[in-house]
Design a protein that fits this description.
3 helices; single chain; about 20% strand; TATA-Binding Protein; globular; alpha+beta; about 30% helix; 5-stranded antiparallel beta sheet
């Protein structure tokens, strides 16, 4: 299980998912090669052996960046596990790319580094509840 963020060229003016224009559609984003280069600039130890599925390991987190094979790219996903330091990595990546991300666990639906720790905490609580429920004997 992972906390998943979906990166797109979300308009800067949109403060929430509800504020997006009804006819909004994601446009092209930087090419895969540029995204991989920026990831390596941020964390040189990133595993870029598969340019469609980059793995980043930080001190207390891991992020799998799923770039897929679409050309041109209009979106990619970050699958996050571990500690809050992942928020800083994602924020730096988005800033360098001048992109934003959907965060289904946030109040607005859009990733915000200032409030992302709450979203990540809610995801962890959900994950822990699922794990606890799955470990219970059936019928209890």
């Amino acid at each position: 299980m992972s906390w998943d963020l979906f990166v797109m060229d979300i308009p800067r003016s949109a403060e929430s998912v509800e504020a997006l224009p009804r006819d909004w559609a994601p446009g092209p984003i930087p090419p895969r090669e540029e995204i991989v280069r920026i990831i390596r600039d941020i964390l040189p130890t990133a595993d870029v052996s598969d340019p469609s599925w980059v793995r980043v390991d930080g001190p207390d987190f891991s992020v799998e960046v799923s770039l897929g094979d679409q050309v041109p790219l209009t979106t990619f996903a970050c699958h996050i596990r571990g500690g809050d330091a992942a928020i800083g990595f994602v924020a730096e990546l988005l800033d360098a790319l001048q992109l934003r991300a959907f965060d289904p666990g946030s109040d607005t639906g859009i990733f915000n580094p200032a409030t992302a720790a709450d979203s990540l905490r809610r995801w962890r609580d959900y994950r822990n509840q699922i794990i606890t429920d799955a470990a219970k004997p059936r019928g209890s």
